[in-house]
């Protein structure tokens, strides 16, 4: 084994937690949509044209453009602008998380009706705007590395769960295939991902940086995309196929990450999605093969 055993166990546990929690959050919010529609007549999915539209939007606005902008800013050492963009991104995602969280709390826990009025609903509505600001200020001003890890995990769960609602199985498979190839090229060919990983690991944003606290002089950094993208694929099978297929997707992701952690060399960067994506495809292929045979 090339990596410290304690780091491997911790990182795989965090990875599995994100995948499972993301599936739960996505499923809860998909159910929430139907309740909102029934209680208020508002269709949260009314603006959706096609999952392929959102796939193109994710690749362009969520990957290509931000990567190009950040690399350009890094080249000209515009660190303050990068930090500002990171703060805005974090605040935006936390707003989405808070919106769903308060709706879930009101509908599923408190059994409230969204057509009603009252102090409780007004308070929760206000928290949708207050909570993201509080979390953002805490994250960037007061949080230590462990607290940032917790908020990073929350960030990745939220991103993957929310994106999953607007995609389907076909678009998720395409997304993971594209990202797996992109990750390999960006690490071993263009190597710009190494520049981004260094920049974000130093700021404790964009990945699990609990591992940056060295244990026996060994450290591991896992980027946020390596957590969110596998969760998106497993979520689609949980939401639109069945529990077993989703579970196989989770197992495949864990196997892919384990290959990197157990066989990768110390202090060397590897494209995690280049292993995680194919492993998910392989294990899902095994699931459908067994389904045909059995």
Would you write up a description of this structure?
The chain is mainly α and 294 residues long. It has one domain (5-42, 51-293). The protein is built from ten helices and two strands. The protein has helices at 5-40, 51-75, 79-109, 119-142, 145-166, 169-188, 192-203, 224-240, 243-263, 272-293, and strands at residues 207-208, 222-223. Helix 1 packs across helix 5 and helix 3 runs antiparallel to helix 4.
What shape does the CA trace take? Answer: globular
> What string, H for helix and E for strand, traces the elements in order?
HHHHHHHEEHHH
Structural class: mainly alpha
Unreliable spans: 208-217
Number of domains: 1
Q: What spatial order of strands do you see in the largest sheet?
A: 1-2
Tell me the distance between the termini.
36 Å
Strand content: under 5%
Briefly, what is this?
With 294 residues, the protein is mainly α.
